[in-house]
Amino acid sequence: MILYALVCQECDHSFEGWFASSEAFDRLARRKQIDCPECAGHKVSKQIMAPAVRPSDKALPGKMDEAAVMKEFIRRAREHVSQNFDYVGDGFAEEARAIYYGEQEDRPIWGETTAEEREALAEEGIAAVPLPAPFAPKPPKTAKRKPPLN
Ligand SMILES: [Zn+2]
Questions:
Q1: Strands 2-8, 44-46: pairing kind
Q2: How far is the CA of 51 from the centre of ligand 1 (A)?
Q3: Ranges of H-type helices in the chain
Q4: For the chain, which terminus, N or C, has the lower number of CB atoms within 10 Å?
Q5: What percent of the chain has pLDDT over 90?
Q6: Nearest CA among 64, 59, 127, 49 for reference residue 93
């Protein structure tokens, strides 16, 4: 059995319903055999959910405005990059290339490139995306840089 959060397309009423399976829900919905408890309409669909952003401890309980949610989202993205990505400083292009060609351990990295390096990477088919400024963490002081090759 599966409990779905549902919404009536006609009156916007939200409700829940138990179904044997996802297929059972689809079948009943197609046959218009699910009734809205509010208006008895049959245009019922599953509610689309977005992940909730848990407010930080400092935030007031209850409402967070959109700007605050966005700010929190960006903060978390930044934190994610700094905790899970290896900072390689301006050796980014070199390191990305080495990973691409299997000369370095495959892992998420971040760092800086020049516009030329970025273009060269793109031409070689090496995927790298520019991180929008608010998403970029502060570079750590102890960058793990490889010694230059030559
Ligand atoms: Zn309804």
A1: antiparallel
A2: 25
A3: 22-30, 66-84, 92-100, 115-123
A4: C
A5: 26
A6: 127
The predicted-structure confidence for 119-146, as pLDDT tens digits, reads as follows 898 899 887 877 777 778 888 776 555 5
CA of 20 to the centre of ligand 1 (A): 22
Please tell me the distance between residue 6's alpha carbon and the centre of ligand 1 in angstroms. Answer: 10
Are 17 and 34 in contact by the 8 Å Cβ rule? The answer is yes
Alpha carbons 82 and 131: distance in angstroms, whole number: 12
Q: Residue 134, Cα to own-chain centre: how many angstroms?
A: 15
Distance between CA 100 and CA 95 in Å, rounded? 8
Predicted pLDDT of residue 43: 92
Tokens representing residue 119 in the block = 């273009």
Residue 97 tokens read as 């290339």
Listed residue (23, 14, 17, 20) closest to 3, CA to CA: 17
